[in-house]
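Re: weekly structure request thread

Next one in the queue (978 aa):
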Amino acid sequence: MLWKRSFRLVALLLGLWLGLDLACSLGAEIFWFREVDYLPVYLLRLITKSVLWIAVFGVTASYLLVNLSLAQRLKYPNPSMGDFRKGRTEQQRRQWEKYSYQKTLHPPKPLRLHWLLSLLLSLGVLVGLMLLHYGQIVFSYWYPDPQQAHVTALIPARLRPETIWQLGSQLSSQGWYLVAIAGLAIAILIYPRFLLYAIAVVLSLLLGSILSEHWDKVLQYFRPTPFGASEAVFGTDISFYVFTLPVWELLELWLTGLTLYGFVAVLLVYLLSGDSLSQGRFPGFSKEQQRHLCGVGGCLMLVIAFGFWLSRYELLYSARGVSYGASYTDVTAQLPANTLLSILALAIALNQFWYALFSVRGASSRRLIFHELGIYLVLAIVIGAALPTAVQYLVVQPNELEREQPYIERTIALTRQAFALNNIDAQSFDPQGQLTQADLKANDLTIRNIRLWDQRPLLETNRQLQQIRLYYRFPDADIDRYSFAKEKPENKKTEQRQVLIAARELDYSAVPQQAQTWVNRHLIYTHGYGFTLSPVNTVAPGGLPEYFVKDIGVGEQGSLTVSSEAVRDAIPIGKPRIYYGQITNNYVMTGTSVRELDYPSGSENVYNTYDGRGGINIGSLWRRLLFAKYLNDWRMVVTPEFRPETKVLFRRNINQRIRAIAPFLRYDRDPYLVAADPQQPETEPPSYLYWIVDAYTTSDRYPYSDPVSEGINYIRNSVKVVIDTYHGSVDFYIADASDPIITTWSKIFPNLFKPLDAMPASLRRHIRYPVDFFKIQSEELMTYHMTDPQVFYNREDQWQIPTEVYGDKPQLVEPYYLITSLPTVPFEEFILLLPYTPRQRTNLIAWLAARSDGENYGRLLLYIFPKQRLVYGPEQIEARINQDPVISQQISLWNRQGSRTIQGNLLIIPIEQSLLYVEPLYLEATQNSLPTLVRVIVAYENRIVMAQTLEQSLQAIFEEEETPPPIVRPVEEPAAVP
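Done, posted below.
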């Protein structure tokens, strides 16, 4: 009895500990969401997840445990347990008499040992594969792939025959899977009762966890928004596929696991009853057992019918034909087959329910059930797999273009819709190559904004010159534009300048090991300070970048150093403390008796106390206990440094912060810093630094739309997120109100999103077309610019993204920002640009431009170059640069004696009706990397120039060539003849 009491005590203590952990987590999350003012968002999500988990777990566990208990009552007794003819109870005697009666008067055909053992092991392996499948899904939710962490969860694969086949192939490649599943199958034969009940509970937990992770799709299901467009096969609005079909697929995922394990578990109980393995045979199923098996089998067939019905709609995501989506074979052969198989499965399910309820007498009726299952399996193979394959090879392939043409048209049209490619304004552009010095002067703003500094060399230089202390770090540099007053005082006009801005964040891991104490980590080293801002086109003495904003100044109580009054007027500085950033991964406490390190000043440090809106007050003891448990930091309870006004700031990493609030959105990989004055109330401490993050709504269920590599086939840049670097406030602004998905989310969370007009104008001037979205669109455009079905079928006009040499290695050209005037656009603007070349060729065929300023934000322009003449592509220009004897010789000289050259990004600049190619050349030491800009290479038409500055290169390449004077040589007069 002592061990039972000990076990109960341990279980009670464990339950109390888990309950305390849950309560502390819930309380801390409520406090945090109240701090960021999004508590209703969290509560709705929490309630939805909890209801889903409880409902799925409860229904699954009840169904499985009730059926297992019923099977235990109906199974054959074990003869080795005693003489049941004198049995212990009336029920046991009746079971034994029924078993003996069957054996003596109606002996069925027994199942011999080798068949019985094979069947039992196969069923055990199937149970193991089910656990493996659902376990892998849950594991992927708990421990997501870091490279896919920005992608919202897609609907996992349902447990279908092809899925089981894939799981079986994993066993051959990963031996420990095979050992574990084989061990489980054998263990079920030895301890069937305990393990089958335990697996039922585990499977219920797994299924509850899986469906609760998809709470977002359930909420969308009840608040759909019509797309106003439909597909051609079923004539259904696309909202059905985006909002309704995913929930039906989740339902199939759940019910398949529920009914399949229920059937297999009951079957295992009956097959192992009566000590069948020891006896060497199984005598057959009793009438009650058959009725029970028909009941659970009917539920399984009902789910199979539901799965085949759903597979009709899933044909719109088929990859069978020459284009994505339902092909000729899918529509004419697979669709009728799936419909027929669904109806037949429903009929078989109803027949099994009829037998389970009314127990039709006669062996012929029972044999009919097994015969119809065999016939159904044959039909599933013949009409579900063999017939569509035959149609594909015999009917479609001999005349593929004609058969597939209407389906190719659907794929092109719906893919272009899903990725917003149908909004692209395509124009022809024929470079004339007639630039002059006058044209350059007329486009002076474009020339003054040609980017000579790439992010990578600038960051390396920043880390050498501007980190100030070891504990500061520049994790990223972002391209943006700011308006500055022109140099002449009498001219009050402003002009846009393209700049690189980089935040100086605090990296606690760089603090010396001896100083990495608890007080330093959480109370003193709390924030970064300031930023650098550099024009992209100017160079300081020594080839280093010029800084408009730099250092941490000693004047004005720590303000940053600015280069001029014009910069001071354009860039608000204030106290640029960065409490919330990209690498602020630790939690800190502010308002303590310990002063926070603000910034270094000479040989001393300046200290500060945080007075922002961020943080949660933990002055009371119970709050300290709550957060000590939540953060697993018991020093918070015993430290004497806390005061009544002490606050804890956690989840300070902006990527974690926004994902915690709205995990149903996909976020851009590159948040960028903005310095702006949003005219805050005077009662608050001024804050002028903000992060802007682009957010996307995505789906993998847009019909006929060809998905990208990450599985999504619909995307919109619907949201702009703004995070205050000092106060930590987060605001979500709707940037694309025409997107049905964001409209649905606005219905679900009415207080989460704000209209874009509500964003302060000073911030709205800095929104830009996001690179991630642009990359996805540009990748799809490589194929889906072809709108003619025959051209698409032949792939005769396929494009590709060209390569360039960066450093000394080739890489794909990345989209880049420019300030320039596009052809047919009479003014300069901030655009994002990417060139294209034909597949397996290197000449330029087109470039795609995305506009970012004012009312033109989001508009895409595609300029297509003539095919009948050569327009140099990046690879051809790179080859000409590296083949030039003077340039290559100079690069070879620099690549010696402890230094190396870095060839920067090759930029294609549209000016008037011509193209200018510019590539910066950097030099860095191999030991202490401090890249300096040493040369600028400019290529135009058939000329290439390398000079120390961009101005010199342009002057050399466009200088007027005068006609050389004729060569005059004196001619001696002939000597006189004597």
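Confidence is low (pLDDT under 50) at residues 82-88, 99-107, 967-978. The two ends are 151 Å apart (CA to CA).
Next request, please.
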